[in-house]
Amino acid sequence: MASSRDTGFAERFGRVDVVLNSLAGEFVDASRGLLGEGGRFVEMGKTDLRDPGEFPGVEYRSFDLLEAGPVRIREMFTELLPLFDQGRIHPLPVSCWDVRQAGDALRFMSQARHVGKVVVTVPRPPDPEGTVLVTGGTGGVGRAVAERLVTHHGVRHLLLTGRRGPDAPGATDLVAHLADLGATATLVACDVADPDQTRALLDGIDAAHPLTGVVHVAGVVDDGLLGTLTPDRVDAVLAPKADAAHHLDRLTADLDLSFLTLFSSAAGLMGAPGQANYAAANAAVEAVALRRAATGRPARALAWGLWEGIGMGAGLSEQDVARISRGGITPLRPERALPLLDTAHRSTSPVVVPILVDTARLEATAGTAPPMLHGLVRRTVRRQASAATTGLDTAWTEELPGLSGMERQRVVLDVVTTQLAVVLGHADHRRIRPQQPFTELGLDSLTGVELRNRLAAATGLRLPATLVFDHPSPQAVAGALLTELVGDAGTDAPPADRAAPLRERIHRLEELLASADPTDEAYSGVEPALRRLLSTWSTRAAAPGGPDGDARGHDDVTDASAEDMFALLDSELGTS
Fold first, then answer.
1. With 84 labelled, which of 109, 360, 540, 558 sits at a CA distance of 20 to 30 A?
2. What is the gyration radius of the CA atoms in the chain, in angstroms?
3. What are the residue boundaries of the structural domains of the chain, listed by start?
4. What is the value of pTM for the model shown?
């Protein structure tokens, strides 16, 4: 087809011999202007037919394709098909719409937004005699999915894969359990990231029960900060998730599947601290689903939130669950997740996000909530929650310049320990010792990034993801933040705190005393030793010149270092 608003087309490119037209009004006349003498104007439209007399010097003809008749049309196709096979011509692009979206498809076409063909597809209902493949079927989530397919979707033939296949722990019990539910399950050891193994797996399916559905559950995690990832660590996560999804898509392209469901993660859409490789793998899975669905083939990616207690969530501690929940997305118990699988299967969208959102928590942490969820947050509540509930309001930073050096340090350190207490799940931030290393406090790479995010929101600063590794204690982080907030003027601290080592050892002593039984005869010498130390210290403090005066106390304690004092204590207690 050749037509143009621009009458300069013919001047730039010359006249054409044939115009295949489907336009109307002034565009018909513009198209006519492209023809040279003796050309042909072929009108295939229906809304603006013209009298051939209006086209002097050219041949005008309107036509309907069906006028050619079935014999001639067959001859046309016979001529065209080899050209497609040879790649000399290419079919027009196809945009597919589920029949339940027919209204959207017609609207899309009526607005002339399409190129090529708009096709409406009809989902194929599940065939109870067909086979459904579940990758990762021997894992916790895979087992739950397999059971759900049997009990709620009428599946009677299952092919379950895993790295160990029938040798996986509990495999025999799983097969027996599914048999009790009325289904036949076959377990096969297969690495679906390997295209040859996957092809052999599909070729081995019994022709009496052809493959009619796929649920790709398999996947692994290898958490770490972006800077620590190596090509091997990235590949180890992408292969079983993204590569496998690509192979399954390609190898089932010509099969009449009822569904191809790819398990993804919300990490690919919203990000997750320390999971750059995992987020990338899941984003790639969703791209496979979108690409496949655009061709009219069944495909759906489910970007799950974390499943609690099974799968990748099986090894989470209470602290981990609390950390994840603080962001507003609550881990899903299997009994809540599985009904969402049914709902997703009824959806017409190629990417579905089955997550459980706690809107109250989301509003309370709006300053660090994923951008994708900002629409769920009421803005007025978000501002109040930030200041009153989470301590993420930055107004306090405006008061720092008016404070003394010591007061500034106290305020910033209080902010750091408050946010650290939230991350670690402590009720009272005052129990955190500022000089204690983060590694001893239980901070790992993921909670370290969460602390960085919370401090960034509380200070309004852009902080590196390696903040807690560059500054390995709350006090060190507070010093770095203070420098960023008020410059060198904020760090006019007094000389090094010489008493800090002694206070650390005393704190350790308090912990030891709290864990000991004072009624046990083995500790009978503890109290007298403590009293002698306290008496000596008090004598020094009251002596002329204070602690640095000339007074001498018991066992020359006045000149003792912290290590000397605790060696003395060990001697008094008989532990040295």
1. 109
2. 36
3. 9-85, 131-357, 391-491, 500-573
4. 0.61
